[in-house]
Amino acid sequence: MAKTKVTENVYYLRTLIANVIFVSSNDRKDWVLVDAGVGDASSAILRTARKWFNTKPKAILLTHGHFDHIGALKKLVEIWDVPVYSHPLEMPYLTGRKNYSPPDPSVGKGLMSLLSPLYPRKSIDLGNKGKPLPEDGSVPFLEDFQWIHTPGHTHGHVSFYRKTDKVLIAGDAFTTVKQESFFAVASQATKVHGPPAYFTTDWIQAENSVRKLCALEPETVITGHGKPMYGEKLQSELEEMKTHFRTEVVPKHGKYVNS
Q1: Residues 153-191: pLDDT tens digits?
Q2: Closest C-alpha to 146, from 128, 158, 129
């Protein structure tokens, strides 16, 4: 898939089931990569980077460290020799100290959920390339963005927001495709959904994170899974999801469903 423009200075590339996002500075001299795709997506990412920027990024930013967001990470770091920024709570999974909790295949009612026990959850070790995001909420090399802690899907999940034009890089705090369904993923049917259920371990925090992002009233969103969404349709579906989160998004039963 070719790199697709989301909005000014923001582009995305779909790697099988997950998106990677390219974000440039206003003068287009610097850029960063957000997430690193699923599987060995390094060739496609490198090819796209050479075509559009002809230089390596200043850094890689991670929304979180699940397998479908770090697939090409170690190879890209080796080639580009750049730092990787994430929330401090995500660092144990990026420094080989802790593995993610097992997924819950009983939630989500779809083939992608049923297959989730097969998905990798072992941590990787970035060594000294892993860096914590700044405590003040600023985003390295992107002065017009801020990072927002949006836990629930993982403890250290973050989203990135540009206030000037209300652009949101949501990661998996919510998605724009029903990620639990193979058919929805294959067709990329666009609709706001909650975080991928099979890997979400704290639904109370997930709901709070959705409410936090809804309060921003984003005009443009690109998530970790699915196509970009915009304007009135986006805000209407976000509001609907927020309103019915506990009854329609949170699974009725499951190992991580909060009592």
Answers
A1: 999 999 999 999 999 999 999 999 999 888 788 888 899
A2: 158
Taking the C-alpha atoms of residue 108 and residue 252, their distance in angstroms, rounded to an integer, is: 10
Residue 95 CA, distance from chain mean position: 19
pLDDT value of position 94: 97
> What whole-number distance in Å separates Cα of residue 82 and Cα of residue 94?
15
pLDDT digits (tens, 9 = 90+) for 79-107: 999 999 999 999 999 999 999 999 999 99
Looking only at the bridges linking them, the beta strands covering 10-15 and 167-171 are unpaired
- Which of 68, 64, 255, 41 has the alpha carbon at shortest distance from 179? 68
Q: Find the helix or strand (DSSP H, E) in which 44 lies.
A: helix 42-52
pLDDT at 258: 66
Nearest to 34 by CA among 47, 18, 16, 50: 18
What type of residue is 108? G
Alpha-carbon gap, residue 36 to 55, rounded angstroms: 17
- Which residue in 92, 46, 85, 30 sits closest to 63, CA to CA? 85
d(CA 240, CA 217): 13
